[in-house]
Amino acid sequence: MSRFSGVLQLTDLDDFITPSQECIKPVKIEKTGTSTGAKISIQEDGSYFEIENDGQMQKLQKVEITLSDCLACSGCITSAESVLVTQQSQEELFKVFEENKKLYKEGKDSETKLIIVSVSIQPVLSLAVRYNLSPNEAAARLAGFFRHLGADMVVDMTAAENLALLESQKEFVRRYTSARNDGIKNILPMLASSCPGWVCYAEKTHGNFILPYISTTKSPQQIMGSLIKSWVSEMYGGRPIYHITVMPCYDKKLEAARADFFNETTQSRDVDCVITGIELEQMLQAEGLSLNSMEKAGYSEPWSKANTTSLPVLKRHIGSGSGGYADHILRYTAKELFGIDFEDFHYKNLRNPDFREVILENDGKILLRFAIANGFRNIQNLVQKLKRGKSNYDYVEVMACPSGCLNGGAQIRPQADTTLKELTSKLESLYDSLPIEVPENCKIVQELYKSWLLGHDSDKANAVLHTEYHAVEKMNTALNIKW
């Protein structure tokens, strides 16, 4: 069964095929300069044979399909796990750790890679619940596990999350003023871009219609990738870095594999490998370990000159457990454009708890209308309203998974005595119990804007912190015809 998010597992869309069907690129056919009129025969066991004119049969080699192939193809996305996905696996991760250990043992330190692990908050909370630990203890023991495997640094992703929020705030204000003052069309509502499941679905199903609405701000994962592979690499003399992220969903693997996030300078991806909560549980089991038994280790700050290491003190952002985009942008815009301190507000549930809205009013006039839409059904309704010209929102925080990232598709599943609803509620309570991080007050972020990005709104900041999207042309093959 595929573990990608619901919007990438649909079986009733023309540009997706069901998980039971074969990938449309299953075999490799070597081209020759001669025309032989050879035929392809599919055997009962699913293997492919090329039959020459003289009757001779040659078995065809299966193609190794990467996640990049899946992103560039409008055929299946759900078959991505059943074909040979090599660059985003536990096996590849263990291989990198072992190669580094071997080089150190042979005295070839200069040939090793600097292995850095970036950790997001949601899988840490998932592990905390699974192993009955506090969030900070779970983070410290997870850092200890990665150190045990051979990681050089384990870092918190809060700095990247702060950058994503600050850039999203400024981007929304630019869009809002352009739409209201200059009459620019098709830029509102601004739709969140941090969920790769939603972005991939938008590119493959609605293409050029929906893409102008999607925020260009990179997700925290990819901002972190740029930070590690450029700024941190530079601080360490250009030493090759292998960058791992710990994320709450499998769709983040697809995001990391996008061609847009390939670093031409280092000739590597900004994020080399994405590992999820479920996979971490499996990795611990494979090593015969429990997170409870791991020694605690600290988080590093490689972007600071001192590169200090200290035990984790986790923080959250206001708003949803998916990053709090709607809340941050609403508060910022209310103050920036209308001079209103809009701090104490509540969302109103609409069709269901996963679709809710909040409105900023002044003297009976609606100034801003924001919403949060989680899960495919709500996303589908949102897109259909946009297509009919009936959406009156200014901003929508869109996430593919019901209940958002705390319930990501690769979070550890409930134990036998707990329902999914109970687990999600526990994760939300745990998240809400953490102290609040205020992006504007983060000294690390201000230093990064100054030293790395050469200022707020600089050309470099816009190039590094923003991206673009690509409509994927539908393919008409026998495998995706609806009979």
From TrEMBL:
Residues 417-473 form the Iron hydrogenase small subunit domain. The keyword Iron applies. One of its GO terms (molecular function) is 4 iron, 4 sulfur cluster binding. Keywords: 4Fe-4S, Iron, Iron-sulfur, Metal-binding. Pfam families: Fe_hyd_lg_C, Fe_hyd_SSU. Belongs to the NARF family. This is Iron hydrogenase small subunit domain-containing protein. It comes from Aquatica leii.
